[in-house]
Amino acid sequence: MVKFFSKTRLKTGILIIVFSALFCILFVLSALGGLRYFIPYYFEIAGPPFSEKSYLVLFQNEKQLTPSGGAITRYGIIRFSNGFFAGLEKKDTPIIACTDPDFTKCLPETGEIYDGIFAVNSRIYEKLKDTSFSPLAWRNISDIIVRGLNEKDIQLNFFSGNLQKKISAKGWSSKMSVPRKDFLAIVDSNISGNNVNQYIKRDIDYRVDLSDFKAKLTVTLENFAPSLTEHDDNTYKSELKIYLAPGTELQKAAVLTLPVESLEYAIYSTNITLKPGDRKVVDYTFIMSEEILKENSYHLDIIKQPGTNQDYYSVIVENPQKWTPASSDFEITDNTAVWRGFLNKDASLNFSITKNP
Predict the structure, then answer these.
(1) What is the mean pLDDT of residues 329-347?
(2) Which residue from 172, 165, 128, 168 is spatially nearest to 150, judged by alpha carbons?
(3) I need a surface site. Which of 215, 238, 251, 305 has the fewest CB within 10 A?
């Protein structure tokens, strides 16, 4: 009888341990939310036993916008030792901001060798700084980080080619895609050196006429900064670059616009100055390559600039008469395709066209 109870208690104890372990695993998996994606790659990121890994972390200020997201206010080094987190070392030494909207091309010089580079905009660390890191808060932290990754407020560049391909496929590296057909990226760079981008509103209207392969782009910028002060006049000066598909030619522009040499894109640059309360409407007309309509389909990639927030886009595509578009991305009315919305992440828009009998 004693042996029977002993065996029963042993089995019960084992079951309790097993169920407790399963509960803990399920809790962790649930609490990690979207960050579960990284679990299979943990040792690729942190390294196996008897190894060291380090990552450069750039803390960016999107209130002073740069092509890659924001001016670099400071940087840090995340270190892993023997597969475990070994701390974050913060540095206050200035680093020149990245000058390309493709974060995978951002390689700042610090005199050290790293296994990758991360960028985090102030929107993220302001949300996290007052957050409890207790297990009950893990899901909230996970949601903040995953949203930051999706909206390019966090950017990742692992120097491990296999891992980086997967990260880029998720859209978490801000790697600029190669134009497939039509392509549009509005890249703003603050050259006034102030934190005025938090007051800048951008609306973009893009109209394409496929009957004569012309596109009209209208960029509207408004400066809602407070009135002038003695020490800061809140004037916004920026270099505005328009990235388009190769072969796209500028026909005319409302302000002085110059081409920028590039093998991958057609790029045009305009300097903008906005005093507080100013509103500027900049119009461009482009001649497009007929290749954008090959195989009776149209594709447009719209690229979100890291650091921007709530830019409003209106895209209207007019098709030749007697050709009808069909799409799950655009709203279709007769021969016109329309897409409107706030650009919180890259958009990939398609429609096919068929000739009416």
Answers:
(1) 94
(2) 172
(3) 251
CATH of the domain at 164: 3.30.1050
Pairing, β 297-303 against β 182-190: parallel
With a cut of 80, say whether residue 129 has pLDDT above it: no
Whether 261 and 214 share a structural domain: yes
**What is the band of 247 on the pLDDT scale with cuts at 50, 70, 90?**
very high
Give tens-digit pLDDT for 185-241.
Answer: 999 999 998 999 999 999 999 999 999 999 999 999 999 998 776 667 899 999 999
The yes-or-no verdict on residue 29 having pLDDT over 50 is no
The model's pTM is: 0.89
Residue 106: domain span: 35-169
Q: In sequence order, what DSSP letters do the residues of 198-225 get, joined into one string? A: GGEEEEEEEEEETTTTEEEEEEEEEE-P
Q: Output the CA angle 27-31-33, nearest 5 degrees.
A: 125
* Domain at 271, CATH number: 2.60.40.1170
Same domain as 229, residue 295: yes
Contacts of 237 (CB under 8 A, 6+ apart): 190, 191, 192, 271, 272, 273, 274
Answer whether 69's CB lies under 8 Å from 152's CB: yes
Q: Taking a C-beta distance cutoff of 8 angstroms, is the pair 31, 23 a contact?
A: no
State whether residue 290 is helix, strand or coil. Answer: helix
Question: Is residue 117 over pLDDT 80?
Answer: yes
- Regarding whether 351 and 255 lie in a shared domain, the answer is yes
Task: Give the range among 40-44, 46-50, 230-234 with minimum mean pLDDT.
Answer: 230-234
DSSP secondary structure string, 123-143? HHHHHHTTS--SGGGHHHHHH
Number of domains in the chain: 2
| Alpha-carbon gap, residue 333 to 325, rounded angstroms | 9
